[in-house]
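Q: What would this chain look like folded?
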Amino acid sequence: MPILFHLPDDLPGYILIGIGGTLGLALIAWRTSAEDRILYLDAGLWALLGALIGGRLVFVLTNWSYFQLNTAEIPLVYLGGFSWAGALLGGLLAIAITAVVYQYPFGTLADAMLPLLGTLAVSAWLGCWLDGCAYGQSTDAWWGLPAKDEWGVISTRAPLQLFGALLSASLIGILLWGVARRVSAGVTTYLSILGLSAIMLLISFLRVDPSQRWQGLRFDSWASITLLGLSGLFLLVAFVKRDHKKPIDPNQWGTNHTRPN
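A: My prediction, written as structure tokens:
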């Protein structure tokens, strides 16, 4: 059958993630003013480090029976083994620490990192396509694309990785250029986590690569459900706070208020 296109199978997935991180930092620098650029780039670099540590740490903990016998492999990230949920939480924690150190609003700083989140999400999906993870069922349909499995065997499969990359890019693009300027600081970040978690949850039900399970669901499904709940809760709190900030009626000025000039 003719193949529409495929990625080079000799390119390591972590190269794509590195390109994604670099592109994300470049977009942050391009979108910010000169006076804030250094701060935002610092936050982006710390977010990358936090994502690296958090993603690897969660993967190691959830596969401790293996790493307990192979402790020398724990820091060898290039061998593979990463948790997207751990990376997301690690990156957010690094941004929060940066906000505290620089005494800068967390919501504003987190929203500025959305280009980096978007490029990393897309590059991670494409990296999975190269490295044989998060793949779908084999198919003979015209829309099938060649993809590896964990053994390196290439066959025509449902293009879950490409589907995830396109959905992630569309989500972040809509939030950056259609939503960010219309909502208060931090809301765009919570919406992005909500959307990315929903994408991950949907694709987790279509994946056929091996995974640990609990109560019949994959670990990544549970991670998606947890992050969906947390981001939804933070969004609810943000909207409640916004609704409580009602403007003062100018006809009800009393002795406790000073009329504006």
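The chain has one domain: 13-244.
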